[in-house]
Amino acid sequence: MNQKTKMGIGILILLIGFGYLMFSGISSSSSYFLTIEEVLAQGKEVYGKPLKVSGLIIGESIDWNAEELQLNFKIKEKDGNEVMAVRYSGVRPDNFKEGVTAIVQGTFTKEGYFKADKLMLKCPSKYEEENPERVKEAKNNE
Amino acid sequence: MAEVGSIALLISLVVTIYSIVAYILGLKQKNKRLLKSAENGVFANAILTTVASAALLYALVTSDFSIKYVAHYTNFALPLAYKISAFWAGNSGSLLLWYWVLSIYAAIIASSKKPEGAQMRPYASAVLMFISLFFALVLNFEASPFAQLGFTPQDGQGLNPMLQNVGMVIHPVTTYLGYVGFAVPFAFAMAALYLKKTGATWIKLTRRWTLIAWLFLSIGIVSGGQWAYVELGWGGYWAWDPVENASLLPWLTSTAFFHSVMIQERKGMLKIWNVLLIIITFALTLFGTFLTRSGILSSVHAFGESQIGLYFLIFMGVILAGSLNLFAIRRKSLESENEFESTLSKESSFLFNNLLLVGSAFAVFWGTIYPIISEAVRGVKVTVGPPFFNQVNVPIGILLVILTGICPLIAWRKSSWQNFRKNFLAPLVLSIIFAAGIYITMGVNEIYPLLALTSSFFVFLTIIMEFYRGVKARMKMTDEGLMTALFRLVSRNRRRYGGYIVHLAVVIMIIGITGSSAYKLEREVTVNQGEVIHFEEYDITYHGLKVQKDPNKDTVYANLSVKKNGKPYTTLRPAKQYFKTWEEPVTEVDFKSGIEEDLYIILAGWSDSGAQAILKVVINPLVSWLFFGINILIVGTLIAVWPDDRQRSIELLKEMHKDA
I want to staple B253 with a disulfide (CB 3.0 to 4.6 A). Which of A88, A104, B23, B281 is the partner? Predict the structure, then answer.
C-alpha cells in the first residue's frame, strides 16, 4: 500500500466518523418552533417531541409554589384565543407577569399540558426600541 | 466635539478612497511618488480615526448627552471606567473601534521598512484600505457614533448593568483586536497571490500578526466566557449560543492556519489549503459581526436588529467573491513543492490536526446556521441545542489533544516505528496508569471524561519530556546550570518552546472544561432563615436577606455562611440589584473559587417577608483551571512571537532567495 492510499484511508475514516456524528446529532438535538395553535392542532403527533413554543403569559393563571419550586401557568397567542397550560419545575424568573412573552422549551404531554425544561422571557423593557431581542435566560438546564 | 468627530470621519472616508485610487494607479504606472502619496494617505487616515475616537471618548467622559450614543449608553452616575468602556457597548462605537484599530494596523504595515516585504507591501496596504473603506462608509452613512439627538437630555439612559463588569471591558476589545488582526495576513495572502509569490514570504511576514490576532481572540473568547460565568448567573460559561459560536469559528480556522503554515514554511506544501484557510478565517470574522448585528438568530448578544448586519453580509460576499476569484486565477502558482512521504510523520500529523480543526469549525458552523437553512428550505423553524455541538466537538477535541501529544515528538518526513516506540512508550504507560488511577480513586468512569483527562495527562508528559531532553542536552554541551540552561533553551528556540507552553495552557484549559462540564452538580432549594443546606461536602446556612442602598442601585442579598467538611470555609452574598436606570433586577451571583472546584450560588428569589429564599447552588469542578490556563496561553504566545531578529532575517533571506 503506498502512502497516498494510507493517508486516503485515514482521511476517509475520519470523514465517515465525522459525517455520522454530524447527521445523527443534528436531528436528535434540534427542537421545533411551533405556535400554540399548531401544537394543539397536531395533538398526539407531537407528544414527546422536543418543541419550543412562545406565547404571552396570562397573569391570573400563574400558580407559583416556592416550596416545591413548581411554576404552572398558561400562555396564549398574541392575537388568538388558543391557550396552552405549561408546567415548569424551577425558579420563577424576575419580571414573570401578565403580558410578558415566555418562550418554553420541552415537550407536549398526553395530559394536555406542556412540560417545560427551559423557560425564557423576552423582556419588554423601556429600551425595547434598541433591544427588541434581549432575551433573558431564566434557567438553563443543560 | 460631535462636529470634530463626524468631520474627521468624513475626511477619513475621502482619504481612504484617495489612498486606494493612488495605490492602484501608482502600482499600474509604477509611479513611486504616487505610491508614497498613497502611503501618506494611510498615515493621515490613522490620525483621522484617532481624532474621531478621541472625540467620542471625550464626549463619553464629559457626558455630552446631546450625542445620541453618549445619551444611550451612559449617564452621570456611571463610574469613569464604564464611561470609557461604553465606547464599545453599542453598535456604532464598536464599529469605530474596529475601524480605528484597522487603520492603525494599516499604518504600521505601511511604515514598515523591512526589505523582504517591500514588493508586497503596497498591494497588502491597498487591500487593507479597501477593507477600511467598508467601515468608513458604514460609519459615515449608517451608524455614525456622533449622531445628534437634537436636544440635550438631563441625564443619559445609563449602561446596561450586565455590561458593568470587568469582563465586559476586556471581552469586546480583545475580540475586536483579534478579528481586525486577521485582516493583515489576509491582505498579504492576497498580495502574494496577485504577485504569484506563493512561497512562504507572506507567511513569515505575517506570522506574528496572525499569532497576536489569535492571542487576542483567545483572550476575547475566554473573557467572554468568564463574564457569562460571573455575570449572567446560570452557572456556566459557554452555551453554544450563535454569537459565541461565531467567535469560535475564526479561532478554530486560524488555529488550523498557523499550524499548517509551518508545513508550507518547511516543505512548501499545503499552499492552496493555507490561502483558503486565511480567506475563510477573515470571512468568518465578518460573519461573526453579521450574526451579532442582524438579529437573524436570537442570542444573548442581541445588539438590536439593524441594517449593519446586512452590510456585513454583503461585504463578506464581496470579500469572498474577490479573493476566491483571485485564488482561481492564480490556482496554478500554488502547486506543492513536495509530497507526503509517510503517514507517520510530522507533516501528516499536522494534516490530521487541520482536518480535525476545520471539521470542528464546519460542525459548529452547520449547527449555528441550521435553523436558518431549515426555515428557508423546509419552512420548519428549529433550534439546535448544545447536545449537538457537544456530541461532535467532544470526540474531535479529544483526538486533537492526543495529536498535540504525538505531533511534537515525531520526526519530519518519516518517522520510524522504532523511534516512535522509544519516544512514546514511557508516556503511554504512565498515562494508562494515570487513567486506571483516576478511574479507581476518583470514580472517573465515563469514557469521554476519562479519555479527555488521560490524553491531557499524556500531552503534559510529552511536553515535560521535551523540556527535560532539551535542558539535559544543553547542560551536557555547555556546562550551564539548570535554570540558565532552561532559560537559554527557551529563548533560543522561542517558536518551539513557546508553542509547547501554549499546548500546556490548552491542556490545562481542557481539564477545566472537562471537569466543569462532566461533573457539574446543581440544586435548587427554598430555605427558611436559619436553615442549613447540605450539599456534598458543604453546609450552607441562610441567615436572612439584607438590603444595601447605594446612590446608583439597591442591592438585596442573602447572607450565607458556608462550612466545608465541617470547617468554616467562607461567607457568600448572592444578590439581586435594582438599578435606578434599569427596569429589571440584575442577578449578582457569588462564588468561592478553588483549585478543585467552585462553589457558586445564585439568589433566584425570595418570599415577600424575606424569611424564605430560593437559592440555586452549583458545584463547578476544576472550572478555575480554564480561567487560569489563559494566562499561561498568553505567556506561551508572547514567547513564541517575541522578536528574534537574528533568526528572522536569516530565514527571510533564504525565503526571498527561493521566491526570486
Answer: B281
Chain A residue numbers with beta carbons less than 8 Å from the beta carbon of B363 are 18, 21-22
Backbone angles phi, psi at B477, to 5 degrees: -75, -40
Domain ranges (residues) in chain A = 1-29, 31-137
What's the full length of chain B, in residues? 660
Asked if residue B371 lies in contact with residue B384, where contact means CB atoms within 8 angstroms, the answer is yes
Percent of chain B residues topping a pLDDT of 90: 67
Report how far residue B627's alpha carbon sits from residue B243's, in angstroms, rounded to the nearest whole number. Answer: 20
Residues 96-115 of A with CB under 8 A from B: 105
Chain A interface, best mutation among B237, B389, B391, B589, by max A CB count within 10 A: B391
Q: What is the pTM of this model?
A: 0.91
Would the CB atoms of B388 and A25 count as touching at under 8 Å? yes
The DSSP 8-state label assigned to residue A47 in this structure reads B
Q: How are the residues of chain A apportioned to helix, strand and coil, as percentages rounded to the nearest 5? A: 30, 35, 35
What is the ipTM, given to two decimal places? 0.78
DSSP assignment letter at B565: T
Any idea which of B133-147, B157-171, B271-285, B407-421 has the lowest mean pLDDT? B407-421
Superfamily of domain A31-137: Nucleic acid-binding proteins (2.40.50.140)
What residues of chain B lie within 8 A of the CB of A129, using their CB?
Answer: 304
The residue ranges of every structural domain in chain B are 2-261+269-332+350-372, 521-621
Cell of residue B400, nine digits: 486533537
The β-bridge relationship of strands A51-57 and A30-34 is: parallel
The CA distance from B225 to B600, in Å, is: 15
**CB < 8 Å to B352, chain A:** 10, 14
Quote the CA–CA distance of A33 and B370 in Å, as a whole number: 13
